[in-house]
Amino acid sequence: MLNSLFRKKPLESTIEDARHGGDGHGSELRKVLGVRDLTSMGIAAVIGAGIFSTIGQAAYNGGPGVIFLFIITAITCGFTALCYAEFASRIPVAGSAYTYSYVTFGEVTAWIIGWALILEYGIGNVVVSISWSSYFVNLLEGLGLHLPPWLATDPETAHQAFLRAQEAGETTIGMAWTTAPTIIGFKFIANLPAALIILIITILAYIGIKESKKSANFMVALKLVVLAIIVIIGLFYIDTDNWTPFLPNGFSGVLKGVSAVFFAYIGFDAISTTAEECANPQRDMPKGMIYSLIICTLIYVVVTLVITGMVHYGEFNNVSDPLAYVFEKINLSKVGFFISVSAVVAATSVLLVFQIGQPRIWMSMSRDGLLPGRFASIHPKHHTPAFSTIITGIIVGIPSLFVESALMTDLTSIGTLFAFVLVCGGVLVLPKESNPGVKRFRLPYINGQFIIPVLLIIFLYSFQDRISDAALNLSHDSRQELLFLIFIGIAIAIAVVTFIKKFSLIPVLGMLCCLYLMIEIPARSWVVFFGWMAFGLVIYFSYGYWKSRLAVRRI
Description:
Structural class: mainly alpha
Strand content: under 5%
Shape: globular
Low-confidence stretches: 22-26
CATH superfamily of the largest domain: Amino acid/polyamine transporter I
Number of helices: 26
CATH topology of the largest domain: Amino acid/polyamine transporter I
Distance between the termini: 14 Å
Number of domains: 2
């Protein structure tokens, strides 16, 4: 049974299945994406709600020095992007990390990572749709239109606002709860705008990749222009005294924003899910990933420096719309409406890219027999994974009506980082090319035999106090410190194996960076993550293990 769990899908078979739609009917996706489109999709996914909302709290915790977190995250994603690029050029197939893991680590690992990606894309879009709803309601207010408060929030948030209003003696804060209609004894409260935007985006993703591409390109161009205008205006109001101290809470304060910042960066992963719709994936996908990552990092760093220069970092606590807030502080409140429009556009572009990505994960898993065959069906007219797109719309749209976004960002980040670790590790065991003469992207080999152990020794020396405190007070420390000690153990093991096998430096650094960012995510989110993984394994052993196409082939 152990051999069956880790049965690997041959590389040639993976490419052949994609060419024939996995079912021999020759249903292919439409190949219309080029470098500009892929870069645009990456920017569309990365420059989204994060730059209009979570960047404020990250700046409050880390001060102006939070730009180092953006740079660290970009470097981490850069290592991973190079590994993705190697895979994308060798295996130009939809499915992203799921497909790559199937070829390198085997079936059960592929299922686990596919299930994690479903969590990443699904919950990620729920969070973004809630953020979109908030900005959209503000936009309506600016136009003099008023949506009933019980149709623009979730029940838990409304109830908590009502309780706080009671304690404070307020009469308006808890209006969503007090004005909501009661149906069979329950308050009917739902975030209608969040669900409606998911519906609209799902229809667009269903109609076709060509239409989605045009929409994404337009939205990216618009929000880049808006951000450029914001930066240009903001430059005239920068007070350099606001940048002192640059790291008010030290590096630990910077790292408090890991989940929020990394959540903003995960979009470039979605580019790899469109490999089969790329005209020349071996050439264009690596460029699209790397270009989008560089552009997005520059944008985040510049915008962060501008807003922390305009307003002292200490004022960003619990500010959900930092870009609008800084212009209100300098009496340019009319700019806030302009920013709300761009925030709605930015969040819409993120939703579109993610809503394109998830159905292609379902499709790839279905081709391999791990999910029912219906998920792999391609619409004969629109050339999109139609059924998977509809299911994605349902599983994202319904929760967006009723759930709050607490913990969701952390869960998405864990799933993404987990995928990144396996992609980086997978490059190290990727089968050798059968035709090495073909021109394609190749990850440069740098011997990590000595570099990785030296870097680990420097890391251990720098964190010696934390290591000793965690080890001596293990029974009293939080689970967060236990995660840190587990990371130390894994890092030492990776360094030893790298020394023995002379592994390439870039993939190993990618694994270590992603693992470290994972243990900085609150431990409570790990409990939910492992619960999701356990649920996924139940489905795999109930269906996928027995229906796998590899199992059928062996029979």
